């Protein structure tokens, strides 16, 4: 005979969830994810080639340096991502492809994690909300294929958030995981320490009576402190060089914050709603803390190159998880379903209507026929090794493919400019063979670009080429007279070939151009 209490427990115990639901969700959304990656595969952001240049130089035995033979400068903020590509550079594999494949695998991992966590909390509806927001947000695919560390960082932050939620819900976690995630996140991006701190602190508190906990904390301090001390002594500065260029732009940070809040408003509201009920307050505190600490850095720095909400994406999967957990707590199934539909629909519409989407959708071919072609042309130019130097603002594909010594006059990869030197003074002192200037039209040389006076630095140079990337975006090539003919011939040959292969004659930033390109890739297209 069962007691009254035993019978009550039997009646109220939750039914075990079937594994069929999450498998179907993974299969359907996984197929959509792969289609999305295919549609954005051509997209690689110019900044990715900055990291690849450091990786290639390290693979060649020079260490992580911008210019071989010069003092090291930390012009990247993704050390572990840079390090990941070194063995592939040694093997001679194309780093652009390595980065894309890595991010596809990690992106698929994020999808699986969200489906499992969403299903565990709210059944099939929870899985649909968590994974649907990710998969139906079109910018996701451009972050997968961009070549940067965005997806890797988001994956680590998401996993750290889930570990924190598991801890406050009383689930078992592997003791080595919270400290490892803290180290990984901090070495992928400096702000990763903040992003993964909530789960780490929860773990420290709940495991405070275990000696192994403090041994692992000590290991984190030793390894993390050793890494920080090495990079400080190697590069000579407390923070990456990009920090000194970007940090402190509160006006831009305010705009970023307003844009991000509007973009993810339903996700933010649902995640914050976890704080209302006592039974969900612990997981709500963890998730809200992760989102707040992740975004705090960008809100006070006004991040540049924030294409398609790149920096907001770092916490996006965490918000997808929070929305799934919150819908599971709404109680009434119809209300939960409506909340999920509104949330996923909001995010999907916000992504597909982004004003930046047409530019990103055509950016890959545009970069190939301009920056990549210029870099390859410079590499082929008959210019002596000692004279292979250039100054450039778009300091990614052009320096990477050319292999030339490069002055980044924005300052991301130039210590003097980052510390306040006039770009014109730095460029004039170096007197590079080539100066590349971004203009809005042919023969429309700007007076000042990124703080550099173009007439001042290029007065003794010859303009040998105006290369169109897209509507309203040209690269002007200025060359010292003694090398003008060689550079012009090589760059023109390279660019002409690239223009023929990449959307010839089309320079408009439209979704139609993107769709036409995709249709041409289909069988019979």
Automatic annotation (TrEMBL):
Which sequence ranges are marked TM in the entry?
21-43, 101-118, 124-144, 180-206, 213-235, 255-276, 283-301, 307-327, 334-355
Give a yes or no for keyword Transmembrane helix in this entry: yes
Q: Which domain of life is it from?
A: Bacteria
Q: Which UniProt keywords apply?
A: Membrane, Transmembrane, Transmembrane helix
Q: What is this protein called?
A: Glycosyltransferase RgtA/B/C/D-like domain-containing protein
Q: Which organism is it from?
A: Amycolatopsis keratiniphila
């Amino acid at each position: 005979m069962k007691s009254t209490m035993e019978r009550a427990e039997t009646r109220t115990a939750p039914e075990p969830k079937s594994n069929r639901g999450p498998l179907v969700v993974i299969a359907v959304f996984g197929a959509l994810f792969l289609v999305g990656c295919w549609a954005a595969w051509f997209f690689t952001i110019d900044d990715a080639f900055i990291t690849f240049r450091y990786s290639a130089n390290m693979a060649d035995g020079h260490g992580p340096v911008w210019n071989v033979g010069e003092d090291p400068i930390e012009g990247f903020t993704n050390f572990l991502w840079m390090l990941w590509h070194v063995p592939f550079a040694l093997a001679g594999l194309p780093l652009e492809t390595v980065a894309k494949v890595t991010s596809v695998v990690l992106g698929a991992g994020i999808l699986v994690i969200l489906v499992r966590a969403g299903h565990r909390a709210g059944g099939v509806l929870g899985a649909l909300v968590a994974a649907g927001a990710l998969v139906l947000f079109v910018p996701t695919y451009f972050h997968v294929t961009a070549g940067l560390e965005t997806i890797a960082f988001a994956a680590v932050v998401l996993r750290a958030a889930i570990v924190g939620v598991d801890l406050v819900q009383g689930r078992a976690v592997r003791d080595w995981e919270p400290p490892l995630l803290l180290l990984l996140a901090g070495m992928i991006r400096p702000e990763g320490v903040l992003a993964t701190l909530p789960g780490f602190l929860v773990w420290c508190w709940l495991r405070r009576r275990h000696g192994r906990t403090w041994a692992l904390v000590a290991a984190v301090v030793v390894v993390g402190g050793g890494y920080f001390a090495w990079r400080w002594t190697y590069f000579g500065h407390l923070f990456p060089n990009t920090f000194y260029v970007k940090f402190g732009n509160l006006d831009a940070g305010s705009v970023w914050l307003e844009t991000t809040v509007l973009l993810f408003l339903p996700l933010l509201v649902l995640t914050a709603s976890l704080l209302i009920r006592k039974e969900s307050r612990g997981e709500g505190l963890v998730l809200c803390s992760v989102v707040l600490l992740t975004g705090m850095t960008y809100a006070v720095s006004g991040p540049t190159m924030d294409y398609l909400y790149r920096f907001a994406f770092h916490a996006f999967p965490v918000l997808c998880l929070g929305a799934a957990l919150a819908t599971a707590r709404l109680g009434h199934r119809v209300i939960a379903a409506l909340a999920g539909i509104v949330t996923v629909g909001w995010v999907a519409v916000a992504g597909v209507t982004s004003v930046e989407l047409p530019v990103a959708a055509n950016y890959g071919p545009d970069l190939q026929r301009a920056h990549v072609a210029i870099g390859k042309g410079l590499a082929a130019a008959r210019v002596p090794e000692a004279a292979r130097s250039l100054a450039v603002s778009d300091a990614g594909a052009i320096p990477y493919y050319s292999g030339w010594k490069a002055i980044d006059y924005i300052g991301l990869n130039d210590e003097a400019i980052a510390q306040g030197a006039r770009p014109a003074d730095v460029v004039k002192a170096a007197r590079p063979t080539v100066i590349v200037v971004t203009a809005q039209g042919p023969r429309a040389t700007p007076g000042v670009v990124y703080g550099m006076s173009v007439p001042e630095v290029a007065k003794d140079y010859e303009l040998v080429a105006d290369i169109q990337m897209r509507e309203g975006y040209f690269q002007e090539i200025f060359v010292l007279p003694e090398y003008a003919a060689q550079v012009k011939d090589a760059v023109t040959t390279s660019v002409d070939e690239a223009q023929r292969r990449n959307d010839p004659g089309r320079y408009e930033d439209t979704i139609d151009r993107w769709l036409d390109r995709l249709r041409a890739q289909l069988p019979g297209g």
